[in-house]
Amino acid sequence: MKIRTVLLLAALLYLAACDPSAYYKPSSDPLQSWNDGGVKSAIIEYVMAVTDPQSEDFIPQSDRIAVFDNDGTLVAEKPVLQVEFAVFTARKMIAEDPRTALEQPFRAIAGNDMEYLSSLSLRESFAFSCMPMNGLTPEAYAAKVNEFLDYGVYPGLSCPISATRYKPQLELIEYLHRNGFTVYICTGSTADFVMALSERLFGIDPSHVIGSRNRNRFVDSVGVAAVYLSDEMEMLNNKALKPLNIHYAVGRRPVLACGNEGGAGDVDMLRYSQGSSYRSLQLIVNHDDARREFEYSEDPDVSLDMARRYGWQIISIKEDWKTVFAD
Q1: Does 31 have pLDDT greater than 50?
Q2: What's phi and psi for 98, nearest 5 deg?
Q3: Residue 46 CB neighbour total at 10 angstroms
């Protein structure tokens, strides 16, 4: 009898070792920072349906593609992180050589004249935000971005940069990863900037970042071949260009897309997702919590109007998120 018991226990342990699901017990609530309600329920019901092989909504793992905007969707955007990184870099340059402050836009930064920065044209603003990368290799630039993540302080919230990530979205990304989704970031910020921080801040591989592109160059000199970054814009990944660039980078239409209100930059990406032959889910973050984050909207409110028209899930930061920021 004892031998049979030992053999039975050994067999059970062997099966558990071969099949992680035999002992893995997922959290009863995968979205703990979300308040119970319609949006949270819709997300969980959707993921359960499309990952259940017995469901008519089942989606093969290879087609479970999710795309998220970055600024205002995964992290605070008042100001946009890449612009704040440029300000952080400019202040370091001024401290090292005060003569730098004699010229714009450094003079405006030295005098805390943020109105000057807001008056820049699109190309001037793009060049300024990309100023820290100009002439660097991606590796050298990534080191500077990580220094910013280590020591930068986000204005308005007076907290470390990593603390401006939205905790509910980190939980959602983890939930999707656990359920066989491949998650991409599709952003208007430059791909080089977001690739430098995507893994550290969001657990998303840099190869899964789709962003604006610069006129970078490849140089093979003195036996050292490298890519060098530029502050000159080649393509701004926004609005109707987001679906096109998702198509080129992924080769599959996303079944889940999440963006945010503010500039109507994500509505085309959500509409593209909604055209999937599979059951799809669209989410849009509404910045309506002035106490815990920021409150702002569009005029006219294209994003929320389209969300209501097409049945997208509107995430109210005020009502749907129990906790806003990570850390």
Answers
A1: yes
A2: -55, -20
A3: 18
Contact 38, 24 (CB under 8 A): no
pTM: 0.90
User: What H or E segment, with its residue span, contains residue 219?
Assistant: strand 217-221
Inform me whether the pLDDT recorded for 120 exceeds 80: yes
How remote is the C-alpha of 149 from its chain's centroid? 15
Please answer whether residues 192 and 209 qualify as being in contact, where contact means their C-beta atoms are separated by less than 8 angstroms: no
Residue where the block lists tokens 């405006």: 108
Q: Render pLDDT for 293-309 as a digit per residue (tens, 0 to 9).
A: 999 999 999 999 999 99
DSSP secondary structure letters along 261-292: SSSS-SHHHHHHHHT-SS--EEEEEE-B-TTT
Residue 265 C-alpha from the chain's centroid: 14
Distance, CA of 31 to CA of 139 (rounded, Å): 35
Of 68, 24, 8, the residue nearest 198 (C-alpha)? 68
pLDDT band, very low/low/confident/very high, at 11 (cuts 50, 70, 90):
very low
CA dist 33 and 320 (Å) reads: 9
* Chain segment 70-91, per-residue pLDDT in tens: 999 999 999 999 999 999 999 9
Q: Measured between alpha carbons, how far is 185 from 66 in angstroms, rounded to an integer?
A: 9
In the three-class reduction of DSSP (H, G, I as helix; E, B as strand; rest coil), residue 232 is classed as coil
CB 197 within 8 A of CB 150: no
Helix (H, G, I), strand (E, B) or coil at 25: coil
**What strands lie across the sheet with 313-316, from one edge to the other?**
233-235, 209-214, 182-190, 65-68, 256-260, 281-286, 313-316
